[in-house]
């Protein structure tokens, strides 16, 4: 294990933390605390998704957020989040580009998807707890 902190590893850390906070906020604050899981399930049903999917998405966003923030399996967390963001982008594609427009546009979920891919490719960066895991798990 290389404990040297470089500018690149700090940049990866900043990317990982930012994506982790966004994911945790989206899952915990928005879906659980603001709308509630039942409300989120109702919204999912109103846009044509199964209501039960809301529970899975909220759990995945919270788990991925924590994994990214802590640096535990961050590549896996980032990759597992990409399908969620593709689903969000597909829901917003008919609303145009600007996310602040009525119904929200698709640029935010698409940008988030690309940043998650970059995070998965770059790796966890500095101060990732997962670096202490054994063998191949330390690289996920």
Automatic annotation (TrEMBL):
InterPro entries: DoxX, DoxX-like_oxidoreductase
Keywords: Cell membrane, Membrane, Transmembrane, Transmembrane helix
Record localization: Cell membrane
Record membrane topology: Multi-pass membrane protein
Gene Ontology CC annotation, any one: plasma membrane
Domain of life from the UniProt record: Bacteria
Main subcellular localisation: membrane
Transmembrane segments: 51-70, 77-98, 110-130
Family annotation (Pfam families): DoxX (PF07681)
Homology family: Belongs to the DoxX family.
Protein name in the entry: DoxX family protein
Source species: Oleomonas cavernae
């Amino acid at each position: 294990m290389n404990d040297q902190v470089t500018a690149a590893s700090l940049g990866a850390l900043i990317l990982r933390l930012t994506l982790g906070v966004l994911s945790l906020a989206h899952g915990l604050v928005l879906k659980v605390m603001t709308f509630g899981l039942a409300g989120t399930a109702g919204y999912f049903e109103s846009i044509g998704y199964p209501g039960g999917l809301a529970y899975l998405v909220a759990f995945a966003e919270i788990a991925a957020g924590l994994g990214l923030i802590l640096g535990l399996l961050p590549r896996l967390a980032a990759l597992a989040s990409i399908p969620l963001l593709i689903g969000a982008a597909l829901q917003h594609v008919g609303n145009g580009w600007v996310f602040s427009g009525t119904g929200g546009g698709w640029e935010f979920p698409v940008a988030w998807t690309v940043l998650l891919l970059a995070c998965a490719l770059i790796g966890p960066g500095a101060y990732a707890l997962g670096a202490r895991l054994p063998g191949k798990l330390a690289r996920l």
